[in-house]
């Protein structure tokens, strides 16, 4: 038995309710193609199964489009880590605001090549793809000298927790020194807004990756007073669905291979947001920030990874425990059962957007700032 949703008016919350109900009956849910796809030849033969994103995304996110357009239209905007999951989506969402020029920096050649082809295929020409590392000061200096940069979105970072546990010095150089380099150049070139893409793993960090992102946040704190007209803004959110190397594509591969789907712990939970949702809020935070804020996104309810695995197995047309096994492998070094989004929940203040909150401003004393500089120097030396 199967159920087919024939309307696009069913929101994310209702889809989740329908999925949960029919999951108990072991009935599959499909959606029909959009009207555009029907016109192009999509028909009943092209019924689409619900995607995990359909069950976890919000009904809608209200964005102040006029304010965003006023900040980004006609400007030269630099995006670091531009070919990554977050960086590339920031680029896609900037394009409709008609920036004058996009400077797209990434150290990964093939993904940057693919982003270039995507933009050209969509008819966009006001951009430059620049291959290089944010840790290379001479290279980054040359990027800032190409055009008067107005806004910087700094998404370049090493993010894979378990790789960074093995090479902490590389995490410090890329995530902390890279941030230092781009922040310093942004201030020197009087950029209007610098937006750091951070993570919930920076809160009470239990791993090297989270610690380096926290240090990147704190480096901004050392520069608040010296930033002049440059607004230094931090955005912090949890896991994004479907990003490179994240749990969703890994589970998809494991299901396609017939299982088992490997979960570290039955109780492990994570906050999730779709990539477009996260990037909408990054752009919004960049447009509303006055400087010095740490913006924390409302990630919704935490999701049990075991439930995520079960739902993905069911969405693939299988039943867990019968067709596809779930295997618990144990927590890995640096892995928490629960992620935190704030260091101090009481410090949370609302913004004009109900999904964006402000944490209290970070502060750092001169001794800590000196220790941070020494840590970066030590990492470079090894």
Give helix % range.
40-55%
Strand order within the widest beta sheet = 6-5-4-7-8-9-14-18-17
Mean pLDDT: 88
Distance N to C terminus? 61 Å
**Rg, alpha carbons:** 22 Å
Strand residue content: 15-25%
Give the count of helical stretches: 14
**Biggest beta-sheet profile:** 9 strands, mixed
Secondary structural class: alpha/beta
The parts where pLDDT drops under 50 for at least 5 residues are: none
Strand tally, please?
Answer: 18
Task: Please tell me what the overall shape is.
Answer: globular
Structural summary, described in words:
This protein has helices at residues 12-24, 35-39, 52-56, 65-72, 85-94, 109-121, 137-146, 161-166, 168-188, 208-223, 247-256, 275-288, 305-315, 366-380, and strands spanning 2-5, 28-31, 48-49, 76-80, 101-106, 127-131, 151-154, 193-199, 231-237, 239-241, 261-263, 269-270, 272-274, 294-297, 303-304, 326-328, 349-350, 356-359. It is of the alpha/beta class and 382 residues long. It has a 9-stranded mixed beta sheet, with helices on both faces. A 3-stranded mixed beta sheet has the order 1-2-3, covered by helices on one side. Strands 10-13 form a two-stranded parallel sheet. Helix 1 (12-24) links the parallel strand 1 (2-5) and strand 2 (28-31). It is globular. The model has no long low-confidence stretch (mean pLDDT 88).
């Amino acid at each position: 038995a199967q159920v087919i949703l024939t309307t696009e008016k069913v929101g994310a919350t209702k889809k989740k309710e329908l999925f949960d109900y029919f999951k108990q009956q072991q009935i599959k849910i499909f959606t029909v193609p959009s009207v555009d796809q029907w016109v192009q030849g999509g028909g009943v033969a092209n019924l689409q199964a619900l995607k995990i994103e359909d069950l976890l995304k919000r009904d809608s996110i209200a964005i102040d489009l006029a304010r965003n357009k006023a900040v980004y239209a006609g400007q030269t905007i630099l995006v670091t880590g531009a070919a990554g999951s977050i960086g590339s989506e920031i680029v896609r969402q900037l394009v409709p605001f008609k920036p004058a020029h996009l400077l797209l920096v990434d150290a990964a050649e093939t993904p940057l090549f693919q982003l270039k082809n995507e933009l050209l295929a969509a008819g966009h020409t006001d951009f430059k793809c620049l291959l290089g590392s944010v840790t290379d000061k001479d290279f980054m200096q040359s990027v800032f000298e190409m055009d008067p940069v107005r806004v910087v979105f700094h998404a370049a970072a090493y993010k894979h927790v378990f790789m960074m546990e093995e090479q902490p010095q590389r995490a410090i150089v890329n995530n902390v020194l890279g941030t230092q380099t781009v922040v310093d150049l942004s201030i020197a070139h009087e950029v209007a807004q610098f937006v750091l893409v951070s993570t919930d793993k920076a809160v009470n960090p239990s791993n090297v990756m989270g610690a380096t992102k926290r240090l990147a946040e704190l480096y901004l704190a050392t520069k608040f007073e010296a930033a002049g007209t440059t607004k230094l803004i931090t955005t912090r959110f949890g896991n994004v669905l479907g990003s490179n190397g994240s749990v969703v594509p890994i589970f998809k591969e494991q299901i396609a291979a017939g299982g088992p789907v490997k979960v570290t712990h039955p109780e492990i939970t994570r906050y999730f947001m779709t990539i477009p949702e996260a990037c909408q809020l990054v752009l919004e935070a960049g447009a509303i920030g006055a400087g010095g804020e740490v913006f924390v996104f409302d990630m919704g309810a935490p999701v049990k990874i075991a439930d995520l695995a079960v739902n993905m197995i069911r969405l693939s047309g299988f039943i867990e425990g019968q067709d596809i096994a779930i295997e618990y492998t144990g927590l890995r070094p640096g892995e928490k059962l629960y992620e935190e989004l704030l260091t101090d929940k009481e410090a949370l203040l609302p913004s004009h957007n109900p999904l964006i909150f402000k944490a209290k401003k970070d502060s750092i004393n001169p001794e800590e700032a000196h220790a941070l500089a020494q840590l970066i120097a030590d990492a470079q030396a090894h």
